[in-house]
Write a structure and sequence with these properties.
By secondary structure, the protein is α/β, with parallel strands linked by helices. It contains 10 helices and 14 strands. The chain binds nicotinamide-adenine-dinucleotide (NAD).
């Protein structure tokens, strides 16, 4: 199992580290455009192998895609992150060019690769990869919902003063401050609905805090977060690599599911060896359906900025 991570920055390096620590891949190649940067990150990570107890071989490459040849899975994290006060949508100008070039270079050397898109605005970047590569839709997956759901569970656990392992919950919709749809009506603590423990007002606050989860961290860190994004991607890579058939909310090209067409947006999917093996249709309340529609309108507006 060979995994390529494009972008050796904060998220790319964190993702490579978690993949290595989970020890399920034989090889991880990190690639970056900055001279020597990916090689440096790879060497530093390899020097943690004896300490952290993994056998995954990590190598670095400065923009040489021949080193990524025959990858099973590739993660695209290359591109600029947002600074405090910026929206993800504002990154489209620079990141669209990068994501387009990177995906075609990956496919030249790994024609069967499954691509996970992380660069923002992620739903639009995922759509761009579809439009420019023509790959089957199961092989292009956007990462956003896995992270947003982890942030939702963190906020629910905090509000209930409960351990996070007690909590289950999911965020669907667009990966943006306004577009996320935290499914508060479906969230549970050990199978009991969270509404049994929290007031409507507190649940609304949890949802609001979840939606600005990324912006809150950008304000604190001065740049975009990396630990939880890296962990979220590594869990998705593991689900595919180990054919786990796990359910994650992921951005995927919809063709009528959830009443939406020709758009990539976060919905629950099953991840296994073929990438997205199934879109899971879950019943939504009328309010959730309306939020999903509004979220899709926002993603479509950003897609309209692409020069296709
Ligand atoms: N989808 C999500 O949930 C999520 C979460 C966090 C961050 N992000 C996004 O991920 C991206 C990366 O964030 P980061 O914090 O790691 O940024 P970063 O600046 O730390 O790293 C980005 C790296 O990409 C490299 N790069 C730029 N152009 C390249 C190219 N053409 N080929 C190869 N490498 C190239 C840069 O040299 C840099 O090392 C941003 O767009 C950010 O908004 C998405």
């Amino acid at each position: 199992m060979k995994v390529t991570v494009v972008g050796a920055g904060a998220v790319g390096a964190s993702c490579a580290e978690y993949i290595a620590i989970k020890d399920f891949a034989s090889e991880v190649v990190i690639l970056d455009i900055k001279e020597g940067y990916a090689e440096g990150k790879a060497m530093d990570l390899m020097q943690t192998a004896s300490l952290n107890g993994f056998d995954t071989k990590i190598t670095g490459s400065t923009n040489d895609y021949s080193k990524t040849a025959d990858s099973h899975i590739a993660v695209i994290t290359s591109g600029i992150p947002r600074k405090p006060g910026m929206t993800r949508e504002e990154l489209i100008g620079i990141n669209a060019g990068i994501v387009k070039t990177v995906s075609s270079s990956l496919l030249e050397h790994s024609p069967n690769v499954i691509i996970i898109v992380v660069s923002n605005p992620m739903d639009t970047m995922t759509y761009l990869v579809h439009k420019t590569t023509g790959l089957p839709k199961n092989r292009i997956i956007g990462m956003g919902g896995a992270l947003d759901s982890a942030r939702f569970k963190y906020r629910l656990a905090e509000a209930m003063e409960a351990p996070i392992s007690d909590i289950d919950g999911m965020v669907i919709g667009g990966h943006s401050d306004k577009g996320m749809v935290p499914l508060t009506s479906h969230a549970t603590r050990n199978s009991i609905r969270v509404s049994e423990f929290l007031s409507d007002e507190r649940l609304e606050q949890v949802a609001a805090d979840t939606k600005v989860g990324g912006a809150t961290l950008t304000g604190l860190l001065g740049t975009s977060a990396w630990y939880a994004p890296g962990a979220a991607v590594s869990s998705m890579v593991q689900a595919i690599a180990c054919d786990q058939k796990k359910m994650f909310p992921c951005s995927t090209l919809l063709d009528g599911e959830y009443g939406l067409k020709d758009i990539c947006i976060g919905v629950p999917v099953i991840l296994g060896k073929d990438g997205i093996e199934k879109v899971v249709d879950i019943p939504l309340s009328d309010a959730e359906k309306a939020k999903m529609k509004e979220s899709a309108a926002g993603v479509s507006k950003t897609n309209g900025l692409l020069e296709l």
